Amino acid sequence: MGELADSVARLEDEVTEAQEALRVVEKVDEEIESAMEEVESVCEALLNLSGELDVEIADHNYPAVERCAYELWGLVDSEQVRRAVDTVALLTAVRDGRALPATSVDALMVGLKDVKASHPTLTQEELDQEFQLAMDRAEGIWREIYDDGSWESEHERKDHLADHLHEARQEAISDRAVRAARFLMELCDHLAETVWPEVTEGLRGTDLERVARALKEASMAGETAPAVYKLYEVNLSEQYESAPYSLGAVGEQLVAFESWLGVQGKG
Predict the structure, then answer these.
(1) 43-71: string of b/e by CB count within 10 Å (b at 16+)?
(2) Angle, CA 46 vertex, CA 45 and CA 51 arms, to 5°
(3) Nearest to 177 by CA among 221, 134, 117
(4) Which of 77, 151, 182, 241 has a CA between 20 and 30 Å from the CA of residue 29?
(5) Residue 162: which residues within 8 A CB-CB, separation 6 or more?
(6) Do residues 122 and 227 make contact, with C-beta atoms less than 8 angstroms apart?
(7) What pTM does this model have?
(8) Cα-atom radius of gyration of the chain, to the nearest Å?
(9) Cα separation of 172 and 128, whole Å?
(10) How many CB atoms lie within 10 A of CB 192?
(11) What is the dihedral of CA 29, 34, 39, 41, to 10 degrees?
């Protein structure tokens, strides 16, 4: 009877240990998934940011566009995200009984010297070239219309042509500013659709070098966002100088503010 009681006690101890081990494994799995969700959430955040930029650009809300540019950079160059990557890598190794990671993903990124930028780029020169092409097309269209020889009044013909060319120029100036701002959306979409899946797939596949490469590419892309905003700011300023009210409510506010400053200066 005593042997039976001892056997039962041993079995109860083993069951208790097994249950405790199972709870530990479940807790580890929960921590892994929580950290993994934090990494994966960046992709959705980038797409949401792209949508937010679309609205703010349409409203010419340049302070909000600037905020979004820095938010973009922060999303993909985040110490918190890199800590989450390290958490997933460490706990996955512990759970699966594999060797622990030899170094952090931060250290891996520093050691990668051959990673090249994969993100799209934009310069003022490219914007100006697009602007000139738009103007050349518009001038060709309107000259073809107004140089058909059907006008009795040369003065009237020139006035109509000049009006349309002026409108085309204003539209091209506006399009140039919008093009610069929407390039931030292109960066968001590129990161969400091309770069960040490399991060998450590499992490789920326990390929830390792949993760580090993708994170470094993402960081390089994010770092350009403030400079892209500056392109937008420069070209939006030119749009304001050319046609203040083309900026809608923002233009009206700026004109009113300038008028107020003028009155204050005279006072």
Answers:
(1) bebbbebbebbeebbeebbbeebbebbeb
(2) 95
(3) 134
(4) 77
(5) none
(6) no
(7) 0.83
(8) 30
(9) 10
(10) 21
(11) 130
- In one-letter notation, the amino acid at residue 126 is E
* Distance separating the N- and C-terminal Cα atoms of the chain: 107
For residue 205, what are its two tokens? 């596949």
Q: Token pair 């103007």 is at which residue?
A: 135
Class of residue 214 by CB neighbours under 10 A (exposed 0-12, middle 13-18, buried 19+): buried
Contact assessment for residue 127 and residue 180, using Cβ atoms and an 8 Å cutoff: yes
Answer yes or no: are the C-beta atoms of 208 and 201 closer than 8 Å. no
Nearest to 132 by CA among 121, 124, 142, 143: 124
DSSP 98: P
Least confident of 5-9, 22-26, 76-80, 139-143: 5-9
Q: Locate tokens 């170094």: which residue?
A: 103
Q: Where are the beta strands (DSSP E) in the chain?
A: none
Q: Find the angle CA(221)-CA(227)-CA(231) to the nearest 5 degrees.
A: 125
Contact 240, 62 (CB under 8 A): no
In the predicted model, what is the mean pLDDT of residues 79-94?
Answer: 92
Q: Which of 223, 231, 133 is nearest to 182 (CA)?
A: 231
Higher pLDDT, 80 or 264: 80
Q: What is the helix, strand, coil percentage profile of the chain, to 5?
A: 85, 0, 15
N residues, the chain: 267
Confidence of residue 261 (pLDDT cuts 50, 70, 90): low
Token pair 């994010």 in the structure block, residue = 222
Whether residue 197 contacts residue 23, with contact meaning beta carbons closer than 8 Å, is answered with no
